[in-house]
Specification:
The protein contains five helices and three strands; from the N terminus they run βααββααα. With about 160 residues, it is mainly α. The protein has a three-stranded antiparallel beta sheet with strand order 1-3-2. The longest helix has about 55 residues, at about 105-164.
């Protein structure tokens, strides 16, 4: 297999054709997965459907065995939950959605965007200029407010001393 999982030929050394159907006991022994786990996985993974013959005996096709190897790897090596493993298997082989190519902007649109950039640059420059002009006024305002606050404190202090 392409994912590094051993092929079923290396699991089954019973002389059967590699394309032969396998019983649940053979698959269980070869993959070291208990039969009740294999039956549970059949319930949880809708894509896992071994052939069932009379008496309910299961026969796993080569594709089923490969799928079981993949399920085992996802759950027991890669740490997927059952729901996550089901989704990973369902999504496998699906091509990712193609993104539509963005249309090339028209020359008119490019010129409008350049004009907007120039306007923003001019506004930024004007804002910086106004800000630098306001800084001294802000400093003077702070000085006036501080001076008024200090005068108020001085007057209250003088009144308290005269009363005391």
């Amino acid at each position: 297999m392409s994912d590094g999982t051993p092929t079923q030929d290396s699991f089954f050394e019973d002389g059967k054709d590699p394309q032969a159907f396998r019983t649940i006991g053979e698959v269980s022994a070869a993959l070291d997965i208990k039969p009740h786990v294999l039956r549970y996985w059949e319930e949880q993974f809708p894509m896992l459907r071994p052939v069932k013959r009379s008496g309910g005996r299961r026969y796993y096709r080569p594709g089923d065995v490969e799928l079981l190897q993949k399920i085992d790897r996802l759950l027991n090596q890669d740490g997927y939950t059952i729901r996550g493993a089901v989704k990973a298997i369902e999504d496998e082989g699906k091509a990712p959605p193609k993104l539509a190519a963005a249309p090339a902007p028209s020359a008119e649109m490019v010129e409008k965007l350049r004009g907007a950039v120039r306007t923003l640059e001019e506004s930024t420059s004007e804002t910086a200029s106004v800000t630098s002009e306001l800084e001294p006024a802000q400093s003077r305002t702070e000085d006036v407010l501080l001076h008024a606050r200090l005068r108020s404190i001085r007057e209250k202090l003088a009144a308290a001393l005269l009363q005391g």
